[in-house]
């Protein structure tokens, strides 16, 4: 069975978007994963197909209605659907590579994309939505965040990446940032490829890469080192 993504959005035209190209696009065509973009507005019941309303308690902006969203979620993910239900949200747990791996190992995802000021808290609670953030900044909607999450997940699905090994050595996979890369030409504007990399000594190369990884991580992301007890 292929990985199945259902995305609830006011802008279904944004999908597959970037995921229709390159690795993800080929995998989509090959049926390695499937994507359904559902128009939330189709579940509004009034003549104007209203999906939002003013915030209770006052304030700026609009809030997505719980009743409309719940109908859309129940359509996309009826009781018994084993897929986790995510809500893209800057208040969510920051997305990590380990969560991406978990999702890729599962049956799929149901993703709710917020717009406006966000969604009524009651539908988050009533439908058990897991809030997921893609970073400490505010997007205008959940769609780009959903594309980011799906891109990260889809590339891990079996058969999607040509060279499966490259997945394991990447940044975050071992709690470190990746070492720098080089390729031909040997000299670029007076800069040489580090000698060790052309030495043919695989042990030395591995040690050099490990040392560079640790140095970069210490400089840029000391929080990653702090998170793993053995790496001091
Ligand atoms: N008023 C909200 C922000 C709303 S932004 C707040 O201050 O928390 C509108 C929608 O964009 C959100 O409902 C969410 O779905 C999406 N979004 C914005 N930033 C995001 C982020 N960093 N990660 C994931 N989704 C985000």
UniProtKB/TrEMBL annotation:
It holds the Pfam family tRNA_m1G_MT. GO terms for biological process: tRNA N1-guanine methylation. The keyword Chloroplast does not apply. Keywords: Cytoplasm, Methyltransferase, S-adenosyl-L-methionine, Transferase, tRNA processing. S-adenosyl-L-methionine binds at residues 114, 134-139. GO terms for molecular function: tRNA (guanine(37)-N1)-methyltransferase activity. Its main location: cytoplasm. GO terms for cellular component: cytosol. Residues 211-232 are annotated as: Disordered. Its EC number is 2.1.1.228. It comes from the Bacteria. It is found in: Cytoplasm. It catalyses: guanosine(37) in tRNA + S-adenosyl-L-methionine = N(1)-methylguanosine(37) in tRNA + S-adenosyl-L-homocysteine + H(+). Homodimer. Belongs to the RNA methyltransferase TrmD family. This is tRNA (guanine-N(1)-)-methyltransferase. It comes from Mesorhizobium mediterraneum. The gene is trmD.
């Amino acid at each position: 069975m292929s990985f199945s993504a259902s995305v609830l959005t006011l802008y279904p035209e944004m999908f597959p978007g970037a995921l229709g190209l390159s690795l993800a696009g080929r995998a989509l065509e090959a049926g390695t994963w499937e994507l359904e973009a559902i128009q939330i507005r189709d579940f509004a019941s009034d003549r104007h197909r209203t999906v939002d309303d003013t915030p209770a308690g006052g304030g700026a902006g609009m809030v997505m209605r719980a009743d409309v969203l719940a109908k859309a979620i129940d359509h996309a993910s009826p009781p018994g659907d084993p897929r986790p239900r995510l809500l893209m949200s800057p208040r969510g747990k920051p997305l990590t590579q380990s969560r991406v791996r978990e999702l890729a190992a599962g049956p799929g995802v149901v993703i709710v994309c917020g717009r406006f000021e966000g969604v009524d808290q009651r539908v988050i609670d009533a439908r058990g939505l897991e809030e997921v953030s893609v970073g400490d900044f505010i997007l205008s909607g959940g769609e780009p965040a959903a594309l980011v999450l799906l891109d990260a997940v889809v590339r891990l699905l079996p058969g999607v990446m040509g060279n499966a090994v490259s997945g394991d050595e990447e940044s975050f996979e071992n709690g470190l940032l990746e070492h720098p890369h080089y390729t031909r030409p040997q000299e670029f504007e007076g800069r040489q490829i580090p000698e060790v990399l052309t030495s043919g000594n695989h042990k030395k190369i591995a040690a050099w890469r490990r040392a560079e990884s640790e140095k970069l991580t210490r400089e840029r992301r000391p929080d990653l080192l702090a998170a793993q007890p053995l790496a001091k």
